[in-house]
Amino acid sequence: MTRFYAPIVKETLDFKGIRIAVSFHDAGREGNGKDLWEKQSAELCFQYLLKNGEEENYGRLVANSILRESNNRSITNQIVQDADKLDIMRLFTNAHLGFEKFRKEALLFLSDRDIFFDSLSNEILECREQFINEAWKFIYYTENEPIALGNQNILDEYIYFFKEVRIDEFTLLSSFI
Fold first, then answer.
1. What is the pLDDT of residue 42?
2. Any idea where the domains of the chain sit in the sequence?
3. Residue 29: pLDDT over 60
4. Span 123-143, pLDDT tens digits
5. CA 155 to CA 149: how far, in whole Å?
6. How would DSSP label each residue in the chain?
7. Could you report the per-residue pLDDT of 55-84, keeping only the tens digit for each?
């Protein structure tokens, strides 16, 4: 989603900060169901960033994007929240229910509640279903047929997966890369 929005957004998107926030969005969870531990996840994210030499203001900015009730409705916050919403599909992959139980209406990406909705063409907005289908397929694939890592950089492995190995199955996600 970050790569999709990058050419649309007027400012430079913080790819690193978004990846870290997405990685920590459930770090403080203590159970399934409603996430009652968002603040703990945000605090763990903040502490991680401080320990890794980031400034306090930057750490708070990234960590706060985890919070649903953030007063900062930004594209970064929308991306992190939508990644969390997509991740719920992973909970049900082994039972093949992830796609059925996924609440599409909660996803802001390419919906009428998307921050950039008014500036997106109908052609782009029509990609929403394809995006959800490809996201489900990728989640299902990675949960049931994990990618054999040739090195320690999983992001490079996934980019290779989309661009070379399964490009025909993930045409939309591949185009974002």
1. 93
2. 2-146
3. yes
4. 888 889 899 888 888 887 777
5. 10
6. -HHHHTTT-SSPP-HHHHHHHHHHTTTT--SSSS---HHHHHHHHHHHHHHTT--HHHHHHHHHTT-TT-S---HHHHHHHHHHHHHHHHHTGGGT-HHHH--GGG--TTSTTSTTGGGS-HHHHTTHHHHHHHHHHHHHHHHHSPPPPSSS-HHHHHHHIIIIISTTT-HHHHHH-
7. 999 999 999 999 877 556 789 899 999 998
Q: Give the largest CA-CA distance in the chain.
A: 44
C-alpha to C-alpha distances, 79 to 10, 41, 53, 144, 148, nearest whole angstrom: 16, 16, 24, 25, 27
The CA distance from 114 to 120, in Å, is 9
Structural contact between residues 70 and 84, judged by C-beta atoms closer than 8 angstroms = no
Q: Rounded to an integer, what distance in angstroms lies between the CA atom of residue 174 and that of residue 147?
A: 16
Q: Enter the pTM of the model.
A: 0.81
Token pair, residue 146, equals: 């994990």
Radius of gyration of the chain (CA): 16
Mean per-residue pLDDT of the chain: 82
